Amino acid sequence: NVMTNMDRAKDADLLARIAPGNDVTARFPVSNPATGAHIADVADMDTEDAARAVRRAKEALPAWAAKTAKERAAILRRWHDLILDNQEALATLLTREQGKPIAEAMGEIVYCASFVEWFAEEGKRAYGDIIPTNAPGRRLLVLRQPIGVVGAITPWNFPVGMVTRKVAPALAAGCTIVLKPAEDTPLSALALAALARDAGFPEGVLEVVTAARAEAVARVLTDSPDVRKLSFTGSTRVGKLLMAQCADTVKKLSLELGGNAPFIVFDDADIDAAVAGAIQSKFRNAGQTCVCANRLFVQAGVADEFAARFAAAVEALPVGDGLAGGNAIGPLINSAAVAKVDGLVRDALAKGAQCVLGGGGHALGGNFYAPTILTGVDSAMEIASAEIFGPVAPIMPFETEEEVIARANDTPYGLAAYFWTRDLGRAWRVAEQLEYGMIGLNEGIISSESAPFGGVKESGIGREGSKYGLDEFLELKYFTMGGL
Ligand code: ADP
């Protein structure tokens, strides 16, 4: 176990500060998906609480927007440092409520802090424009201004990473924000908010609304004319609902939705590297990421070799409680997730897929699912079109480049795609033809604060991270000066 007694004390400290919630009496429980153990109760806020949070964020907006980017950056920088100072305590809390291996949780804290640092700096570069004039005595200018109060709704698979990816650019741009974290993992978000208070963000700049059921409080965010922008990460189903709800107030939207990532291994690939990439891409967070490899297409000439080496690597992955150091795969988030993943596997097996490894619940029981490899998967099986969100790898053979591009694109999703080849011409051809927002060539992990994360088609709208991520929280204002 990597945790020292001091880390545990810090973890208990953080928990004592964030739960139970202050002035709200209703509570809901948060539990550990690995053991079922109760961790804490948090405030189950209602629509009035959400409306109050929006009011506070609205009141805080003018003073926050009026600060210089450098002043905002100084507070963001302190938040970044506090997050890293509390890395182990935050990671422990994250693993307790989410289940991922502690090493991955430690990595997620660094990832989460990196967005705060990045946008603290990037906020200083929200440059406008001066356009060459179209008439004498006139000047044409473009200002970039904070859009206003932002609503953010985040998922449980990256309980801190998804929070700072939205909160940091919003605050850096001069917006204020009301955050509703996922009901399975509210503690990590509350801990980040506690550290934000320590960092010195003014009252109302970051408001957190926790609720056992999302619909009603989310409605307050989508319906309020005071909320000018909604940023959501989660399922395509809920993203579509929110998009419709935002129509009435014509809100600016960022949506990071589901994926159905193809992972393509060509005959000329470095097979060992492709196997290692597939392990990272498929089994990180027990397969519960929106950019996880969802369909492994392997060219016929290397299909058997890849399957054999991949199976050996997967078999070596230790499954168990994320808090015990050394495990590579933790539990799924809850029993509904286990039932969903198992349903996809049952359907594939009933329709003729072969099970190379796993194929059902893990011997540990509870929310643990056995790492699974299926071969002989075809498009008639649900698993070929559904987002799996679990440690299950379906392998599908293919013959030609043209065929695999068509099959890879044959989905309403368009988030991440991966392919493995050493042929430079093919690298460009395939990258340009894949209809995805993010492409990894000979890489299984692509996300970084300095690169634009986001999808096309039904995988979403907008980008997070990078210089483009700031634009999502800024409005262009055209300013013309005449009579000069
Ligand atoms: P997942 O399938 O990954 O749990 P969801 O889209 O259900 O994804 O959840 C992502 C976030 O959306 C969570 O914060 C959840 O509470 C919230 N959410 C779920 N249903 C709704 C809804 N009907 N309206 C608004 N937010 C919702």
UniProtKB/TrEMBL annotation:
Q: Catalytic residues?
A: 256
Task: Cite the CDD domains for this sequence.
Answer: ALDH_F5_SSADH_GabD (cd07103)
Q: Keywords for this entry?
A: Oxidation, Oxidoreductase
Q: Name one GO molecular function term.
A: succinate-semialdehyde dehydrogenase (NAD+) activity
Q: Which Gene3D superfamilies match?
A: Aldehyde Dehydrogenase, Chain A, domain 1, Aldehyde Dehydrogenase, Chain A, domain 2
One example of a Gene Ontology biological process annotation: gamma-aminobutyric acid catabolic process
PROSITE patterns noted in UniProt: ALDEHYDE_DEHYDR_CYS (PS00070), ALDEHYDE_DEHYDR_GLU (PS00687)
Describe the location of the Aldehyde dehydrogenase domain by residue ranges.
26-478
State the similarity comment.
Belongs to the aldehyde dehydrogenase family.
Listed name of the protein: NAD-dependent succinate-semialdehyde dehydrogenase
- Report the source organism: Pelagerythrobacter rhizovicinus
